[in-house]
Amino acid sequence: RDMTGRLGVCDMKRRQCTFAVQLYNMPPAAQIYVGVHEYCHFLQPNQSPAFWAEVAKLLPDWKERRALLR
């Protein structure tokens, strides 16, 4: 859907991730980062060090990928 300010949202109650249409125009590496980021919220529903550890398990280069979004 069209979103401003976010590229992805994780709804824990519905067990659903929603992504911004703007993500379609991003590089594939950035798209994968956003997908993994939102998926990891199912494992850790916050932005704690444990959350980032889960992201790093799946995407060791997550910082470089996140930089593509800026």
Q: How would you summarize what this structure contains?
A:
It is built from 3 helices and 2 strands, in the order E-E-H-H-H.
Word description of this protein:
- With 70 residues, the chain is α+β, with helices and mostly antiparallel strands.
- It has 3 helices and 2 strands, in the order ββααα.
- Strands 1-2 form a two-stranded antiparallel ribbon.
- The longest helix is centred in the middle third of the chain and has 16 residues, at 28-43.
- The protein starts with 7 loop residues before the first strand and ends with a helix.
- The mean pLDDT is 92.
Which descriptors would you attach to this protein?
70 residues; flat; 2 strands; 3 helices; single chain
